[in-house]
């Protein structure tokens, strides 16, 4: 298929781009490079440096079979302080994209949604039919887009699939997490293991969980990327499907720290800090719908996710001279 990947210079978008190419698809990447990296886009892939609002210019040039839409703002903490950025980029940006897709008769959309739409979960895992109650503007904005896509599919022949990611981590070859401001648990913990930060701050140890730290469901970015390729084949005109993507198993922050120590063979000193606003205690997927309907299975366990993220981290230390302190990019 001929597809446009918005946000294809970002962490997840770049891995999906790579997997799409390996699968024989013809990919164009659009990214404004506000958080992405030009060199994360595989060599030879046409790259358009533009805002999501300008996606119509690309779609006008030639017929596309689909759009995979990753371009978004995605930090829970930032969204609590700057909600307007999340409504503008995530909601208004996607509105422009849907209008352009309709104008140019693009039949398929795969949308990068999130478990943050659900809000607080529990040990049993969150299914897609759980009533959404987001706890942050990030989650609210992604939920608004999911609702907008459903309306679009009811009125027009668009076939869409929203993939609600739980906690994505790991790396695939040269593509991994390299955010300019890193807020995610696994890359920060690897920085500590590598001696680039003195300790990990655990955001709260009084949550209603077995060890008092938050429970999350970690999924390897490559498993996630493969689900996108499958979803592209599953988009049906006039239908909006929603699937959770996780491993179906929760790990606490302390369990992640222990896994990082095990995999890297390094010590990770921790301190306990106040809770981070917007964080739910539990986010664990019931991903049985994706397994059954997409015939997709995640392959990587937590140690593999961390081992691949660590290999990427070490590789960047050599290529980018990251041996000193500072941020990750
Ligand atoms: N976390 C933490 N210290 C950090 C970064 C994250 O304790 O420096 C916790 C965070 O509160 C959450 C979990 O780790 O419970 C995963 O956070 P992350 O930002 O990686 O992903 P999120 O769940 O927010 O999408």
CATH class categorisation of the largest domain: Alpha Beta
Order of helices and strands: EHEEHEHHEHEEHEEEHEEHEEHH
Characterize the biggest β-sheet. 7 strands, parallel
CATH architecture of the largest domain: 3-Layer(aba) Sandwich
Number of strands: 14
Q: Approximately how much beta-strand content do the residues carry?
A: 15-25%
Helix percent band: 25-40%
- Average pLDDT score: 94
Q: What is the fold-level CATH name, i.e. the topology of the largest domain?
A: Rossmann fold
Q: Which ligands occur here?
A: uridine-5'-diphosphate
Report the principal-axis shape. Answer: globular
Strand order, largest beta sheet? 3-2-1-4-5-6-11
Number of helices: 10
Radius of gyration: 19 Å
Report on this structure.
The protein is of the alpha/beta class and 329 residues long. It folds into two domains: 2-170 and 219-245, NAD(P)-binding Rossmann-like Domain (Rossmann fold), CATH 3.40.50.720; 185-214 and 250-286 and 300-322, UDP-galactose 4-epimerase, domain 1, CATH 3.90.25. It is built from ten helices and 14 strands. The strands form four sheets. The chain has a seven-stranded parallel beta sheet with strand order 3-2-1-4-5-6-11, sandwiched between helices. Strands 12-9-14 form a three-stranded mixed beta sheet. α1 (11-22) links the parallel β1 and β2 (26-31). α6 (185-193) packs across α10 and α8 (253-264) crosses α10. Mean pLDDT is 94; it is low at 321-329. Bound molecules: uridine-5'-diphosphate. Uridine-5'-diphosphate is lined by residues 76, 167, 183-185, 188, 200-203, 214, 216, 253, 276, 279. Keywords: Carbohydrate metabolism, Isomerase, NAD. It holds the Pfam family Epimerase. Pathway: Carbohydrate metabolism; galactose metabolism. It catalyses: UDP-alpha-D-glucose = UDP-alpha-D-galactose. Residues 3-246 form the NAD-dependent epimerase/dehydratase domain.
């Amino acid at each position: 298929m001929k597809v446009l990947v918005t946000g294809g210079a970002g962490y997840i978008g770049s891995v999906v781009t790579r997997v799409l190419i390996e699968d024989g698809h013809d990919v164009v990447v659009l990214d404004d490079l506000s958080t992405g990296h030009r060199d994360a886009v595989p060599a030879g892939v046409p790259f358009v440096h533009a805002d999501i609002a300008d996606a119509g210019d690309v779609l006008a040039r030639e017929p596309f079979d689909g759009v995979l839409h990753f371009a978004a703002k995605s930090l829970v903490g930032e969204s609590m302080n700057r909600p307007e950025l999340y409504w503008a980029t995530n909601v208004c940006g996607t509105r422009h994209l849907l209008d352009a897709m309709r104008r140019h008769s693009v039949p398929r959309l795969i949308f990068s949604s999130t478990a943050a739409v659900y809000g607080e979960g529990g040990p049993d895992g969150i299914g897609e039919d759980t009533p959404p109650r987001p706890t942050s503007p990030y989650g609210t904005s992604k939920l608004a887009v999911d609702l907008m896509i459903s309306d679009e599919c009811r009125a027009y022949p668009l076939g869409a699939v929203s993939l609600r990611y739980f906690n994505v981590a790991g790396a695939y070859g040269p593509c991994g997490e390299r955010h300019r401001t890193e807020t995610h648990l696994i890359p920060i913990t690897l920085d500590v293991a590598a001696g680039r930060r003195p300790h990990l701050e655990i955001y709260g140890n009084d949550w209603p969980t077995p060890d008092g730290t938050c429970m999350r469901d970690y999924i390897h970015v490559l498993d996630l990327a493969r689900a996108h390729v499958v979803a592209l084949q599953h988009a049906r005109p006039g239908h909006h499907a929603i699937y959770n993507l996780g491993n179906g198993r929760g790990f606490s922050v302390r369990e992640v720290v222990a896994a990082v120590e095990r995999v890297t063979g390094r010590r990770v000193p921790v301190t306990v800090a106040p809770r981070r606003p917007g964080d739910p205690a539990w986010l664990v997927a019931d991903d049985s719908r994706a397994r059954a309907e997409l015939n997709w299975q995640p392959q990587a366990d937590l140690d593999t996710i961390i081992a691949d993220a660590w290999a990427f981290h070490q590789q960047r230390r050599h290529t980018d001279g990251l041996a000193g302190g500072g941020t990750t990019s």
